[in-house]
Amino acid sequence: MDMKVAKKLGLKERYTLMTRDLAWDTTYQPMDKVFPQVTFEGIKIHDWDKWEDPFRLTMDAYWKYQAEKERKLYAILDAFNQNNGHLSVTDARYMNVLKLFLGSTPPLELMAARGFSMVGRQMVGAGPRVACQMQAVDEYRHFQTQIHSISNYNKFYNGMDEFAHQQSRMWYLSDGKSFFDDAITAGPFEFMVAIGFAFEYVLTNILFVPFISGAAYNGDMAAMTVGFSAQSDEARHMTLGLECIKFMLEQDPDNLPIVQRWIDKWTWRGTRKLASVGMMMDYMLPKRIMSFKEAWEIYFEQNGAALFTDLARYGITVPKCFSQTIEEKEHVTHQSWIGFYMKPDATPFHTWIPGKEELDWLSEKYPNTFDKYYRPVYEFLDQQEKTGNRFNNKTQPMNCQVCVSTIKFNEPGDPMSTCFRETRYKGEKFHFCSDHCKDIFEHEPEKYVQTYISSHQGLQGNCAPEGVDVNAPDFNPGDHIADYWKLDKRATGDFNGSEDQKNFAAWRDQATKN
Amino acid sequence: MQIDLRTVSITPLRQTFGHLARRMGADKPASRYMEATMDLQPVENFHYRPTWEPQYDIFDATRTKIVMKDWYALKDPRQYYYGTWTLARGRMQETAEGDFDLVDELGLAAAYPDAGKDHALSVFLPLRHVAWASNLNNGYVSAYGYGIAITQAACYASMDQLGVAQYVTRLGMAFNDLDALASAKNAWLNGQEWQALRHWVEDLMVEKDWFALMVAQDFVLDGLLYPLIYDRFNDKLNDTYGPVFSMLTRFQREWFGETAKWMDSILKVAAAESPENKAVLAGWINTFRERAVNALIPIAEIAFGDTAGSELDDAVQQLHARAAKAGIAL
Ligand SMILES: [Fe+2]
Ligand SMILES: [Fe+2]
Ligand SMILES: [Zn+2]
Predict the structure, then answer these.
(1) Closest chain A residue to B109, measured at CA
(2) CA distance B42 to A167
(3) Predicted pLDDT at A3
């Protein structure tokens, strides 16, 4: 009597039947032709069966849970939109958080979707392949729900309507784009370290928790719900990234130095990318949750240190940049916000000088640096603004050849001077924001000479809108760049006096008074 | 801070995003499908070339012979973005769950005549590996295809095929027969009847043109296999023994009926784009059909015995009719 056999299966065996047992080693086509990308990075895998499935979710269960989540999510979005929920946010400055988010995040979620589809095609083992495919489809969910949640705001506020056009063209979105372009053009294993591990595991909390709690604190139910709803997906993504690291390290000792170099590289690249999230926390949220410094201490220094302690048994050490990021946490957000404030014609979101209470909050949160270095700058800028001399930096920035950020961060150990590095490659000079970016370049110069630097491209006449003759004698790239970006004038410059500010005030009045 | 808002009507500044307004030719509200899909994939200013295929850009329209002025013309008539797709699949899995429960509660599998059961399982169970291949092949389309309209639909199709492979596995488990799953895998790997089909799907795993792969896998192979097995073979089992298999493969039937509409629409739009596209598609369908039919003959024979030839002919006719409706003369 073998009639009960299948019912007695444990969860693990059952999941094996539902995934790995479906797979076979091809014989009519050689395996290395079916999966051509798994060797060129130098990672050695001897036994794909040793992969431990980080979660065991069959498609029927996946559809069931996810459908339930989507039903709830869209019901909340619909209600929020119908009731003019946008008028319940703390103040109209909050909209600028959404502008920054919409420009930078959904386009990267999309790249994650495509990247995980690629890795989900290339991994030889059935376990990692299925896990990556599931993440790919989740990432479709993320960029789509994010766009859907901000879509209604776009109807009422300026600066969100051209995010799709701007994602590949706007200078300040170039750092995120270069991050994902870099990961997706690397091999499948490096992609997993870059996105699956460094991004999803080491940095995801500091990326999303501030946005989600920031949304909640500031009355944005739409973004908050989208964020919370994505959290259970992220939990799966994190376990996948970590499992992938462990798997590589357990397979062959030769993998260790490669993985370590990737961890060093991607932790640094991720850190650079986070400067703008920090700026959002410290400057853009009308009601603050915590300072970037505090978030960095909890999510990176403490949680990160625990993680690397855990990985020490494989020989992994704390990323090289760890101590520099600790020093920088007291500076980067201020330097970033000042940088954006000084370029009022070049972003589709508004900037402002923090009010008195906000400056005090910053002084309190950044006792070592704010009063000493940054408060005086704001006071000076404020004075200039009041006397009709609002600062407007029209010079082309110098960009880092690796992370593409504007070279503006300070020299380690010396907050008063800008850190600047350069190197020569094949007779050409390249510039960097830091030793870490320089190292990354020098390890793979053929890759990083390709970096698309928008300020260079602009000067070369490659950033002109259609219909403009870049060879005309009077062509001046600066004249057309705003059109190339499809930058709405109403969305730029100071928040004070902006259309957003006036409209919000009038609409809220209408909705709250009789 | 909790604010009480009165319901007031405010005139929006705009109805939709700029890229959608330009696409629609007017500033008017766009559907959630449009918002989730159109013009979102980067098309220029890539930073680096793929280290794994430096001859291409990260997203590169020349990865297929098919040429489109606008890749977002390849819309999904089902308007599936993640939310609508999962909701649709969520409903289908609920039905499937009910079917599996019912079969279990009523002991329908145990009561099924042995001869019928062995016959049915010998046909259905190896198909879990075919669905697995389709999962991989649709994964290729979602990875290297051009434009979110096609890559998201392929991504969903890829996950759907994983679902199909798992439902077929559960079919084996519903009959409490792990041995049958093992011998089906053995048949797939070594059985004479299955080798032409395995050879064909393995060849598809190395096809580099993603559009060709989609035509071969989704239009031609599934276009023959699903009607042949999930419709006709089920009919035969129903007539001879009873409807249990039909119940336990309902997902596949419904899925094919729905997904075929998507495929047909993709082919129709791509063919209508240019005579060159039309010729390429016709060429592909002819070549792929030949391979697929050859691969399916021995399986049709297991399923239908003497009438295998005519059953397969009918399925081919059905496929030709779909191609003709899409404007592709073979
Ligand atoms: Fe995501
Ligand atoms: Fe994620
Ligand atoms: Zn840099």
Answers:
(1) A3
(2) 8
(3) 45
pLDDT, one tens digit per residue, over B182-203 is 999 999 999 999 999 999 999 9
Measured at the CA of A338, the angle between CA A224 and CA A175, to 5 degrees, comes to 65
Beta-bridge partners for A421: A432
Nearest alpha-carbon partner for B12 in A503, A495, A215: A503
Give the residue among A462, A394, A452, A477 at the shortest CA–CA distance from A174.
A452
Give CATH for domain B71-325. 1.10.620.20
* Nearest-Cα residue of chain A relative to residue B111: A3
Q: Which residue from A152, A155, A149, A62 is spatially nearest to A105, judged by alpha carbons?
A: A149
Distance CA A334, CA A361 (A): 13
Distance A106 CA to ligand 2 centre (A): 11
User: CATH 2.30.170 occupies which residues in chain A?
Assistant: 395-461
Q: Which of B183, B162, B187 is nearest to B172 (CA)?
A: B183
Specify the CATH architecture of the domain A49-161+170-330.
Answer: Orthogonal Bundle (1.10)
Are the beta carbons of A63 and B93 separated by less than 8 Å?
yes
Nearest-angstrom CA–CA distance, B189 and A34 = 17
Q: How confident is the model at residue A6 (pLDDT cuts 50, 70, 90)?
A: low
Q: How far apart are CA A259 and CA A308, in angstroms?
A: 13
Q: What is the pTM of this model?
A: 0.97
Q: For the domain covering A395-461, report its CATH number.
A: 2.30.170
Q: Kindly report, residue by residue over B154-178, the tens digit of the pLDDT.
A: 999 999 999 999 999 999 999 977 8
Distance A142 CA to ligand 1 centre (A): 5
With contact defined as beta carbons under 8 Å apart, do A195 and A186 qualify? no
Rounded to whole angstroms, how far apart are CA atoms B167 and B171?
A: 6
**pLDDT-above-70 percentage for chain A:** 98
Q: Which ligand is nearest to the CA of A271?
A: 3
Query: Whose CA is closest to A201, among A266, A250, A121, A291?
Result: A266
Least confident stretch, A39-43, A80-84, B274-278: A80-84
CB A330 within 8 A of CB A368: yes
Straight-line distance from the first to the last Cα atom of chain B, in angstroms, rounded to the nearest whole number = 67
pLDDT attached to residue A2: 45
Give the residue carrying structure tokens 């070049």: A346
- Residue A44 class from Cβ within 10 Å (0-12 exposed, 13-18 middle, 19+ buried)? middle
What is the rounded CA–CA span in Å between residue B75 and residue B59?
Answer: 18
Angle between helices B308-325 and B250-273 (to 10 degrees): 40
Which of B17, B16, B140, B24 has its CA nearest to residue B75?
A: B24
Structural tokens at position B242: 């009873």
Decide: B24 and B30 in contact? Cβ < 8 Å. yes
Of A70, A113, A162, nearest to B18 by CB-CB distance is A162
- Is A6 within 8 Å of B206 when comparing Cβ atoms? no
Structure tokens at B134: 């389709």
- Walking along chain B (330 residues) 10 residues at a time, the average pLDDT comes out as 76 97 97 98 96 98 98 98 98 98 94 95 98 98 98 98 98 89 97 98 98 98 98 96 95 98 98 98 98 98 97 98 96
- Partner-chain residue, chosen from B19, B81, B94, that has the shortest CB–CB distance to A165: B19
